[in-house]
């Protein structure tokens, strides 16, 4: 009798659920941001004495039988398992009771991309491309979750939070896990202007649906308004020529015509810059002011030119546009790089494909060195060359050499490995700033060193103490 | 009662997370507790006598609830819900028709009941869970 209870009800799980519920309910409401149904979003504060006391959080309450908000649970599990989620909100707690789901998230400070563009007007092209690259990276994190690609389905400027150089993609309320073979989605949601056609019921939403939305977000940043039918009809003529084919491809009606992944879109966005920068070197005369390019990209100021008037795809044509052509081409430098500060410039540089290749090569060098030094150590352990080493028992030699060349060395090198866009996948140093990671990992290295010496001393008394 | 405007209904329909939850909100009017209970019995192919017994309710009292001679409290209806194997939605509908509060996820005891309903637990299992988390159990209920 008592055994049957454990079959359906797991007291441990129920206890965790109740604890999460209690934590979520104990928060005090600062402000209601969105009033459901099906979703209520509040800015709340964690109570004193609990975990994260006094911190601001976002509390979301989803009502309804559908999987509304279920994506947060998927994300929470992935985050607990250490998936790279630098550009997604951190889930602190979630609980599902009956048809209600409660989620507690980190509050992401910053301005929405929507407010940013509405306040400052269309973004300069390099900055807009940077934004699109960042949103791509965020989408890539979602699409790479271990449970299967999580499709956001509501990527739009108001769901992109910008704070300095950090970009966070929020609001996974209608995200869902992509299932192979499913014909179409059961529940339809989305935002007109950014939602792709399949989200209106033409098919199952997929990775390409988010690619579409990112393309539209890029167009929004450049145009300063939601791209409408006319922009689509005239082939996004208001956009800088170098970006036009990219946006048009990302926002193709047919999902199979789009970039197959957010990463593919991002690589093209990154390369458009590299191509331009290289051209700038050879053709400094054509360098134009940024504001010119911006003026030219505002569609109402001049009649939309027929696409045949200009090169259809200037990103693939190597020669620069003639000087008398309207400067709707891409600006040749990144004017904001001066204001970004050292860290920003470093980061922007690191995002380039060339930098990624160098970074990977550097990691290979580190790994080769590690393998080499370990191999040498094994050699010494097996066949000691010095008198002092020969005096030690085998176990002590093994601990001494492999300990120092193994864990200690790995911890010493860890902060210097290239991490690219997968920072949080790195243990120990991924979640914190670089100096902090350095302190952590070198601190641990010191501990390992001491532990190694202690072990050696235990195995062969007198070795360490005698030699100092 | 004032008839809601079409626009309001449409807005609500748009806002509703699913069609069934919308229908839910608007199809309960005019239903009686006894009527809904018998509807559920028929839909699930259950016998009243078995359900009343499984819910730990006295035969006479149970009979009166099903004929509409008596109303029932929340703590009498919940054992009935578990005895009939109702879903969360059906249970909330039952509570609503009876004029009592629906299960409220923010109340700890209700949360446990909801959790158990969700997983198709038996009355014994939900009482075990309630007891082990220091909440008042549902049954047994005589009268």
Core attributes:
heterodimer; A: 468 residues; alpha+beta; Transferase(Phosphotransferase), domain 1; 3 domains; disordered N terminus; B: mainly alpha; 0% strand
Descriptive account of the structure:
The complex is a heterodimer of chains A (468) and B (143). By secondary structure, chain A is α+β, with helices and mostly antiparallel strands. Chain A has 16 helices and 10 strands. Chain A folds into 3 domains: 97 residues, Phosphorylase Kinase, domain 1; 240 residues, Transferase(Phosphotransferase), domain 1 (Orthogonal Bundle), CATH 1.10.510; 115 residues, no CATH class. A 5-stranded antiparallel β-sheet of chain A has the order 1-2-3-5-4, sandwiched between helices. Chain A is globular, with a radius of gyration of 27 Å. Chain B has one domain: 434 Repressor (Amino-terminal Domain) (Orthogonal Bundle). Helix content of chain B is 62%, strand content 0%. In chain B, helix 6 runs antiparallel to helix 7. The longest helix of chain B is centred in the N-terminal third of the chain and has 12 residues. Chain B is globular and about 45 Å long. At the A-B interface, helix 1 and helix 2 of A face helix 7, helix 8 and helix 9 of B.
Main β sheet profile of chain B: none
Strand order of the largest sheet of chain A: 1-2-3-5-4
CATH topology title of chain B: 434 Repressor (Amino-terminal Domain)
Distance between the termini of chain B: 37 Å
- SSE sequence of chain B, one letter per element: HHHHHHHHH
Approximate helicity band of chain A: 40-55%
Strand portion of chain B: under 5%
Level-2 CATH architecture of the largest domain in chain A: Orthogonal Bundle
Classification by helices and strands of chain A? alpha+beta
Helix content, binned percent of chain B: 55-70%
The CATH class of chain B: Mainly Alpha
- Level-2 CATH architecture of chain B: Orthogonal Bundle
CATH superfamily of the largest domain in chain A: Transferase(Phosphotransferase) domain 1
């Amino acid at each position: 009798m008592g055994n049957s209870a454990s079959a359906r009800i797991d007291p441990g799980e129920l206890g965790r659920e109740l604890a999460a519920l209690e934590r979520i309910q104990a928060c005090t409401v600062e402000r209601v941001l969105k009033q459901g149904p099906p979703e209520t979003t509040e800015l709340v504060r964690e109570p004193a004495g609990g975990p994260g006391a006094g911190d601001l959080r976002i509390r979301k309450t989803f009502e309804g039988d559908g999987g509304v908000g279920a994506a947060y649970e998927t994300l929470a599990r992935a985050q607990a398992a250490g998936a790279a989620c630098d550009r997604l909100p951190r889930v602190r707690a979630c609980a599902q009771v009956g048809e209600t789901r409660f989620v507690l998230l980190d509050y992401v400070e910053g301005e929405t991309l929507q407010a940013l563009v509405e306040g400052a007007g269309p973004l300069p092209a390099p900055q807009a491309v940077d934004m699109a690259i960042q949103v791509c990276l965020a989408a890539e994190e979602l699409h790479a979750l271990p449970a299967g690609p999580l499709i956001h389905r509501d990527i739009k400027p108001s769901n992109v939070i910008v704070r300095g150089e950090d970009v966070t993609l929020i609001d996974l309320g209608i995200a869902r896990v992509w299932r192979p073979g499913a014909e179409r989605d059961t529940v339809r949601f989305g935002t007109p202007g950014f939602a792709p056609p399949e989200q209106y019921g033409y098919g199952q939403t997929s990775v390409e649906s988010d690619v579409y939305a990112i393309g539209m977000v890029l167009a929004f940043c450049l145009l300063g308004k939601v791209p409408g039918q006319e922009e689509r009809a005239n082939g996004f003529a208001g956009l800088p020529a170098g970006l036009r084919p990219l946006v048009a491809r990302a926002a193709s009606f047919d999902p199979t015509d789009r970039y197959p992944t957010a990463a593919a879109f991002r690589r093209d966005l990154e390369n458009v810059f590299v191509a331009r920068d290289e051209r700038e070197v050879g053709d400094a005369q054509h360098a134009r002011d940024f504001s010119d390019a911006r003026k030219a990209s505002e569609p109402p100021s001049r009649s939309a030119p027929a696409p045949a008037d200009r090169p259809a795809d200037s990103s693939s044509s190597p020669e620069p546009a003639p000087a008398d052509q309207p400067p709707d081409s891409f600006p040749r430098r990144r004017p904001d790089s001066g204001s970004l500060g050292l860290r920003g410039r470093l980061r922007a540089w690191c995002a380039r494909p060339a930098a990624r290749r160098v970074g990977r090569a550097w990691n290979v060098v580190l790994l080769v060195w590690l393998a080499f030094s370990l191999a040498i150590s094994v050699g010494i352990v097996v066949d000691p060359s010095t008198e002092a080493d020969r005096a030690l028992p085998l176990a002590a030699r093994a601990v001494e050499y492999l300990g120092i060349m193994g864990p200690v060395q790995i911890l010493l090198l860890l902060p210097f490995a290239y991490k690219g866009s997968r920072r949080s996948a790195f243990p120990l140093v991924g979640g914190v700033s670089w100096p902090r990671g350095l302190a952590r990992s070198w601190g641990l290295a010191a501990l390992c060193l001491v532990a190694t010496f202690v072990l050696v001393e235990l195995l062969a008394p007198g070795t360490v103490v005698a030699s100092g | 009662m004032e008839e809601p405007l079409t626009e309001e209904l449409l807005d609500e329909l748009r806002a509703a997370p699913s069609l069934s939850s919308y229908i839910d909100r608007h199809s309960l009017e005019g239903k009686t507790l006894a009527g809904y209970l018998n509807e559920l019995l028929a839909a699930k192919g259950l016998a009243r006598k078995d359900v009343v017994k499984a819910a730990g309710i006295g035969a006479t009292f149970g009979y009166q609830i099903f004929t509409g001679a008596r109303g029932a409290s929340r703590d009498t209806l919940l054992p009935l819900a578990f005895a009939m194997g109702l879903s969360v939605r059906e249970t909330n509908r039952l509570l609503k028709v009876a004029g009592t509060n629906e299960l409220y996820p923010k109340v700890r005891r209700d949360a446990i009941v909801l959790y158990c309903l969700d997983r198709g637990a038996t009355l014994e299992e939900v009482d075990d869970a309630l007891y082990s988390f220091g909440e008042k159990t549902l049954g047994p209920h005589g009268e």
